[in-house]
Amino acid sequence: MDTRTAHRMVAVPSGRVILSDLRTQRSWPVELAPYRLAAYPVTQALYAEITGARPGTARGDRLPVEGVSWWDAVRFCNALSRREGLTPAYRLDAGPDAEGDGITWDAAADGYRLPTEAEWEHACRAGTTGPRYGPLDEIAWYRGNSQERLHDVAGKRPNAWGLYDMLGNVWDWCWDVYDPEVYGSYRVLRGGGWFDEHWSCRASARRRSHPTFQVDDVGFRVARSVVG
Hints:
This protein is an alpha+beta fold. Helices cover 17% and strands 22% of the residues.
């Protein structure tokens, strides 16, 4: 896989997702228009090509990039958009010290962005209704089979829509704030990672982290809106 295909986009159809919050015991539906989502998490090679940096401790061009903050992911999306002549999706009005409050998403932009939490779950499920889109060992790297390390992207079976590593390997940053009343600017993570037990690798599982934190089991994949 070269960097030209490392962010190959998959067309995701419209749909409806029911999101839930365990603390508030609240559930709510989200209606989704069609969008596009990368078939793979952003790789180290692609991240280095766009930013000149190789964060994290593991090394390998086909490994998912990790040790990237939510802010790092947002800046990457804008940089990739500019390289491809697209309109950046984000306007950054302040630096990372703003804790996520100094950013605006232009929903009409055709550039790369992070998926919303609802978009992520809809794409992960790919029309299925259970906790996973296939047998866990066939679709995900997790604590039970990862030897407690990262693995190259696309090493496991994709879901029905051609999306790889939606569960396991690295958690994906999403656009959404997790629970502002309790956690402030913390952002949503989805998907489970290489160090997680099986119960964290589910389509509905949620995790959170501060937008400036860099963790060795957290990466991201890019999305694009269908505009025009």
